[in-house]
């Protein structure tokens, strides 16, 4: 049996305000694993080099932000379990969080995010 996927950690920052602690998927293995098997998402996941996601194997609804190469949010959506999202061709990275997080944070299209690794 292979060991569990390890994510790098960091902070999600928007407009000089820390929004949340963060898990970071920056390897092929961690990107493939993502949030599969999660019943609850305590820590959002930032996925480098990603244009689309699915929630097959994820047991809760997610807020999803698609970011371009300058980390500008180009699209947001909420997606339920067992769904496959359409690719966002302008996107280079994806942020996944528990549904309702973006509203709580005030995150919207046009905001620029910063990922600060710890």
Structure description:
The protein has 118 residues and is mainly beta. It has a single domain (8-117), classed as Jelly Rolls (Sandwich), CATH 2.60.120.1140. Helix content is 9%, strand content 37%. It contains 2 helices and 7 strands. A 7-stranded mixed beta sheet has the order 5-4-6-3-2-1-7. Strand 2, helix 1 (28-33) and strand 3 form a beta-alpha-beta unit. The relative contact order is 0.26.
Describe the structure using short key phrases:
single chain; 118 residues; mainly beta; Jelly Rolls; seven-stranded mixed β-sheet
What is the topology?
Blueprint: E1 8-14, E2 17-25, H1 28-33, E3 45-48, E4 62-67, E5 73-79, E6 93-98, H2 101-105, E7 113-117
Parallel strand pairs: 2-3
Antiparallel strand pairs: 1-2, 1-7, 3-6, 4-5, 4-6
What does the largest sheet look like?
7 strands, mixed
Structural class: mainly beta
Q: Overall pLDDT, averaged? A: 92
Count of all domains: 1
- Strand tally is 7
- The appropriate CATH architecture is Sandwich
State the end-to-end CA separation: 29 Å
Task: State the gist of this model.
The chain is mainly β and 118 residues long. The protein has helices at residues 28-33, 101-105; strands spanning 8-14, 17-25, 45-48, 62-67, 73-79, 93-98, 113-117.
